[in-house]
Specification:
Number of helices of chain B: 13
Order of helices and strands of chain A: HHHHHHHHEHHHE
Shape of chain A: elongated
Strand content of chain A: under 5%
Strand content of chain B: 25-35%
Strand order of the largest sheet of chain A: 1-2
CATH architecture of the largest domain in chain B: 2-Layer Sandwich
Number of strands of chain A: 2
Radius of gyration of chain A: 23 Å
Largest sheet of chain A: 2 strands, antiparallel
CATH superfamily of the largest domain in chain B: ATPase, nucleotide binding domain
Oligomer: heterodimer
Helix content of chain B: 25-40%
Largest sheet of chain B: 6 strands, mixed
Shape of chain B: globular
Distance between the termini of chain A: 65 Å
Radius of gyration of chain B: 30 Å
Number of helices of chain A: 11
CATH class of the largest domain in chain B: Alpha Beta
Number of strands of chain B: 26
């Protein structure tokens, strides 16, 4: 294939694209896959929570279990016009909604790529109401709004990529990569990417942040934002809807990780060593409820906390091997 | 022959027993405990909790946890006991439609018999699980001081729970029955009952041929093991505050842990001289530092903390002996009832007061329920020598001039009975008289329970004391009191029939029975589903674990591919059945999974 200038196709990668990195995400505010928090640090709770967006069980299994109606394989990428990055432009990511399941499958190293390493995406379709020019943010309309509590509704739209795909894995012979600057000049600058967002109210900014995080699968982050909004206005319907949906999804995720809630819970650490653990008083309280005969479900009932908080603490204790689960 | 269970429906703990052969057996609950806390709660998710599980969240979910409902049962909304409970309870007590008492939990309001029925239903389930057959009949114990309304409310609670309450008996009588079971005793005993929330002391005469007569009973409905726990909690909180300047009362989770730890320490100190209270991560400071509470509590310290409580029980014993018009040395045995009587200092105090070692031949937590079971069996087997006589628990009479109470039917009178007395007018030219029917033992009418009232009119005008009015009380076996007043000269008569009421109408009781039955069916169904789900999940995990090995063994054979596809389909269908909460479908799939698992195991073992 040739371009308008009639130049022969060149088989090369753009020099800004690392050859083997499969997925590029702005992970500066994203989750990690491994819990690495200390319960006695109040900040660490949210830090930990954020990881919950990515289930640690095999993504395929999780997807089958939780998103049974979601197509397991992503549809093929639609052919799109792709433009090379201008030399003066900041790196731009493909901003289509990402599948948290796909994020799970990606190697951690890939997701820890810093912004500077992020390759240029050849095409951007930024929303005009984007609240931030920060690369990597989803812009509306990126994901369906959480109208229900079904996890399958939270998945990416049909255009999303399969876990392994990304723009950098595109066939290098793809003619769109062979456009030169002259073509760009003729076709005009890429739309919207660099246009600064209109100044917005704090609420609008929060809503955008909440939606962005939600669409990216950062349900805990979205929940934190939603709860912050509800502190200001308890009747904020958007925040209520998102908060509820986030709680439901997170609850399902923790429950899925723990397995059957009918399992008995026992303390796996000798009594005299418990005080040397790094726990906060809430985790200490949950630990004190464990008598060796109670089930996870019973602990949830008697903890006096909301289900999500209690599940999170139980999961953390389980992850840290402070408690063990066994079938009745 | 139909089995009858005996239930000790306690203020803080309940116990169920049955007669196996000739031996009364206490039935443990699913957790293996022989007593079940009389605590009912509703969780945030609307789930109902009963017993230990409800108690363990009693502080963290205080507004929706009911304890000591027995203090309110059969009481009128305006009674002082209800006012007191409103002041001291963490749950919301509201007025019912018949001036009765209701409790609001989350978005539903429950009558007191309904709350008690939840505990009774739990006891029924415990017995049914143990016996493997449905249980219908029960004997339930109540404090000796309960009036007819309270007894009727307890009966209604039993009915709501699906039980036919064939007899209500007094707790001290029940304890004495178990104590005297198999012996032909003739003696005067004291029953010292220090439970979790109440203290009662009763003096009884046990006669040969099954005569158990309560001579006097008194107590304190706000004195029990919880007060001892509270002293330990105060001690712990005080020392922690001294050290860290943090008030643990402000944190519900900390308080719940303190309460559990205090109760545990108190129990341990009945057998050891000191115990360690270790509560790591009891609270977090503002500096994100979790603090631990670690204290050693000695028996001596506990005794010092609670000596006034023990002394109060002795004062009440003194009062009971006085009410019975007996001397202490006339008490021939002392029966200890209630878990708190295990405390050595309590036993010492009792021994010191009665000048004799208390009897330790009966189990303090179980003896009341055992007596009820003995009585239940005697009733269905018609063992006349063992059947307690049905007596009126309190005296019945009318109010007379000056607000005095005139007794017509004395306490402990065997029913049915009838008594008549002549009264006169108290004012000149009095043409009408108001008859106030009351129940109680106090000489002051105000201290007794008003059962009903009516007015007799058309009296002859005459100076005071000249008109004679005959008042007749009739008490039948169903506890219905008929009061008849008649002007002996004119023959003018008026009467009233007083039936004990729990504060609920018959229709309300029926509706509650129906709801309770529905709940039971739902609960049984949930249990079946959970059981099948657990089995299915175990099988699915095993099958999925074997898939790679099966694929390797069968290779590309059509048969193998077909078997794997069928297995995957069974797993999918099982998951769908779990999602749909379809118990029937799930059970079907469990069978299918079990067959698949057996087949896979066979293939793997051969491969």
């Amino acid at each position: 294939m040739s371009d308008d200038t009639g130049k022969p196709p060149r088989r090369s990668h753009p020099h800004t694209v690392p050859p083997e990195v499969p997925v590029e995400l702005d992970s500066s505010w994203d989750d990690d896959t491994v819990p690495r928090f200390e319960l006695d640090d109040p900040m660490s709770e949210s830090a930990f929570d954020r990881v919950t967006a990515i289930p640690e069980m095999p993504a395929e299994m999780f997807a089958q279990q939780m998103m049974s109606e979601q197509p397991t394989s992503a549809p093929p990428a639609e052919p799109r016009e792709q433009l090379p990055r201008l030399a003066s432009e900041p790196p731009v990511l493909d901003v289509r909604p990402l599948d948290p399941m796909a994020m799970q499958q990606a190697p951690r190293a890939a997701r820890s790529v810093s912004l500077g390493d992020v390759p240029t995406a050849p095409h951007v379709a930024a929303s005009p109401n984007s609240a931030t020019a920060r690369p990597g943010r989803n812009r509306a309309p990126l994901a369906p709004e959480p109208t229900g509590l079904e996890l399958m509704e939270l998945g990416p739209p049909a255009t999303s990529r399969s876990p392994g795909s990304s723009q950098i894995e595109r066939d290098p012979r793809d003619p769109v990569l062979e456009l030169d600057l002259g073509d760009v000049a003729r076709s005009g600058p890429p739309p919207a990417v660099l246009i600064p967002a209109e100044p917005k109210s704090a609420r609008e900014a929060e809503i955008t942040a909440m939606k962005d995080r939600y669409a990216m699968g950062d349900f805990t982050g979205a929940l934190v934002v939603a709860e912050g909004m509800l502190e200001v206005n308890a009747n904020d319907l958007d925040a209520q809807r998102y908060a509820q949906s986030c709680r439901d999804v997170l609850t399902q995720m923790y429950a899925a990780r723990l397995g059957a809630l009918s399992q008995r819970v026992r303390v796996a650490v000798p009594g005299d060593q418990i005080r040397w653990l790094s726990l906060d008083h809430r985790a200490g309280f949950v630990l004190s409820l464990i008598d060796g005969s109670s089930t996870v479900e019973e602990l949830l009932d008697i903890s006096g906390m909301n289900r999500l908080d209690a599940l999170r603490i139980i999961y953390t204790l389980f992850e840290q091997r402070v408690i063990a689960l066994s079938e009745r | 022959m139909e089995r009858v269970i005996g239930i000790d429906l306690g203020t803080t703990n309940s116990c169920v027993s049955i007669l196996e052969g000739d031996t009364p057996v206490v039935i443990p609950n699913r957790g293996g405990y022989k007593t079940t806390p009389s605590v009912v709660a509703v969780t945030e998710a609307g789930k109902r909790l009963v017993g230990h599980i409800a108690k363990r969240q009693a502080i963290t979910n205080a507004e929706n946890t009911v304890y000591a409902a027995k203090r309110l049962i059969g009481r009128k909304w305006n009674s002082p006991q209800v006012k007191n409970a409103i002041m001291t309870s963490s749950y919301s007590i509201v007025e019912g439609p018949h001036a009765d008492v209701r409790i609001k939990l989350r978005d539903k309001t429950y009558s007191i018999p309904e709350v008690s029925s939840i505990v009774l239903q739990e006891m029924k389930i415990i017995a049914e699980d143990y016996l493997g057959e449905p249980v219908k009949k029960a004997v339930i114990t109540v404090p000796a001081y309960f009036n007819d309304n309270q007894r009727q409310a307890t009966k209604d609670a039993g009915a709501i729970a699906g039980l036919d309450v064939i007899r209500i008996i007094n707790e001290p009588t029940s304890a004495s029955l178990a104590y005297g079971y198999g012996k032909d005793l003739d003696r005067t005993v004291a029953v010292y009952d220090l439970g979790g929330g109440t203290f009662d002391v009763s003096i009884l005469e046990i006669g040969s041929h099954g005569v158990f007569k309560v001579i006097s009973t008194t107590g304190d409905t706000f004195l029990g093991g919880e007060d001892f726990d509270a002293r330990i909690i105060d001690w712990l909180i005080g020392s922690f505050q001294e050290e860290h300047q943090i008030d643990l009362r402000q944190d519900r989770m900390a308080l719940q842990r303190l309460r559990d730890a205090a109760e545990k320490a108190k129990c341990e100190l009945s057998s050891v001289r000191e115990t360690e209270i270790n509560l790591p991560f009891i609270i977090s400071t503002g500096r994100n530092e979790a603090l631990h509470l670690q204290r050693t509590l000695s028996r001596q310290t506990l005794e010092k903390l609670t000596d006034d409580l023990v002394e109060r029980t002795i004062d009440i014993c003194r009062q009971a002996i006085g009410d019975a018009k007996l001397d202490v040395d006339e008490i021939e045995d002392v029966i200890l009832v209630g878990g708190m009587t295990r405390m050595p200092v309590v036993q010492q105090a009792v021994a010191s007061f009665f000048s004799r070692e208390p009897n330790k031949s009966v189990h303090p937590d179980e003896v009341v329920a055992m007596g009820a079971a003995i009585q239940g069996a005697a009733l269905v087997q018609e063992k006349q020598d063992m059947i307690l006589l049905d007596v009126t628990p309190h005296a019945l009479g009318i109010m007379t001039f000056g607000s005095y109470f005139e007794e017509l039917i004395p306490q402990n009178t065997t029913v049915p009975t009838s008594r008549t007395k002549i009264f006169t007018t108290s004012r000149d030219d009095q043409t009408a008289v108001k008859i106030l029917v009351m129940q109680g033992e106090s000489k002051r009418a105000d201290d007794n329970e008003l059962l009903g009232e009516f007015i007799l009119t058309g009296l002859r005008r005459a100076p005071k004391g000249h008109v004679e009015i005959e008042v007749t009380f009739e008490l039948n076996t169903d506890g219905i009191v008929s009061v008849h007043a008649k002007d002996l000269e004119t023959g003018q008569a008026q009467s009233i029939q007083v039936t004990a009421t729990s504060g609920l109408t018959q229709d309300e009781v029926k509706n509650m029975m129906s709801s309770a039955q529905d709940y039971l069916v739902e609960r049984r169904s949930d249990e079946q589903f959970e059981g099948a789900k657990q089995e299915a999940e175990t099988l699915m995990a095993e099958i999925e674990h074997m898939f790679p090995e099966i694929e390797r063994v069968v290779g590309g054979a059509d048969f193998g591919r077909d078997a794997i596809a069928k297995a995957r389909s069974a797993v999918d269908k099982t998951r769908a059945a779990i999602a749909a909460k379809d118990t029937a479908q799930l059970k079907e799939q469990v069978d299918q999974l079990a067959r698949t698992q057996r087949m896979f195991k066979g293939v793997v073992s051969r491969g």
